[in-house]
What we know:
By secondary structure, the protein is of the alpha+beta class. The protein has helices at residues 2-14, 52-59, 62-74, 81-94, 106-117, 146-150, 171-178, 232-245, 263-271, 314-325, 401-416, and strands at residues 35-39, 45-49, 102-104, 119-122, 125-129, 136-141, 157-161, 164-165, 185-192, 195-202, 204-207, 211-215, 220-225, 250-254, 277-283, 289-294, 302-307, 329-332, 340-347, 352-362, 378-379. The chain starts with a helix and ends with a helix.
Amino acid sequence: xxxxxxxxxxxxAVLTLSSCTNLTALMxxxxxxTAASSSASDGTEEMVSVPKKEYEALKxxxxxxxxxxxxxxxxxxxxxxxxxxxxxxRGMLQALEDPYTFYYSPQEFSALWEDDKGEYEGIGxxxxxxxxxxxxxxVRVFDPSPAMDAGVRKGDILYQVExxxxxxxxxxxxxxxxxxxxxxxxxxxFKRDGKELPMTIERKKITTNRLERKMxxxxxxxxxxxxxxxxxGEQFKAATEELVSLGAKGIIIDLRDNPGGWVDDxxxxxxxxxxxxxxxxxxxxxxxxxxxxTKNGKYNVQLVIMVNGQSASSSEILAGGLQERxxxxxxxxxxxxxxxxxxxxxxxxxxxxxxxxxxxxxxPNGKEVHGIGITPDVVLEESATEGEEQPLYQFGSxxxxxxxxxxxxMEDKLSKNQP
Length: 419
């Protein structure tokens, strides 16, 4: 019966079959397309019926099942079925050669939703990955956090976690390793100015804030949005209401280093500043188009949006839509250029999942974003060149030259739009 167990595990990981399917079909001998045989306990042949479509799907997995059987019978060490199945699932999606399509183990899929809720046990860093170079950079150090206490800085490169050399392909494994029970420690190596910085950091419970807001002047408010995650749309609406109630006629939206997140939150935020129309649209491989709409009812405020080379995905959907439809002035550098969206889906019955690129998105006017990014109306120079330490500024500090310039642009816009 070992063969049946192996095949059942494969099916659980890959397919959802109707209840009438007998899992011995894949390994059955003499099957003709709708039936298969297996040996009963008394040695007689037992025939079972399988819908032809499902049988054909099962046959495609026969090589995988045979490989697992070969390992079980011949490999010189005991091998974990779960580990092999996990590797098969990962390899299937890696073969697509799309850096945004990948498999989540049950543990990873569970951690994904924990992250979305804004609480987890770890060291308190936000990481951005350059999928062309594989480099994983720190774009935010939570305050307070163990990483902040250890001296980790924005702009540092995450180089090694325990014995894992970190790159785009191993990042998830590294992140899982940095997670753990509060009070335990993890060894992490960062790079700064080309030098390795080994650290031993204590894990603690981390609570992440999605955004911050404040009034910069009597008429200009600032909202820094760090990620499009659970309830960020609602939090952004509450922040906007607060700033408007305090007298804001213009709002600066800081999307620098925001890697993106849920598209629905980008649409919800865009809806605050737009009447009925399209914020963005998706184009699927079959040519089908799906529009993301905003509805009537908006805050009558002027907008300036700050972006940089790490502003990606939903950040670009929001910035591009508001630039074209709300007259928002985008300032900074060319954004990242991730113009594709993914579906995050559960897989099988054990709690695993997958993220799969399903479509490319465009701005309301049909501009392509993928590999290009959002072009700012006002180009600003980076405050540090590659390899130099990134300066850190307190939230809302006008020592930040980009924020200072954004405020100047906003005040000019307000002066030209006085009643």
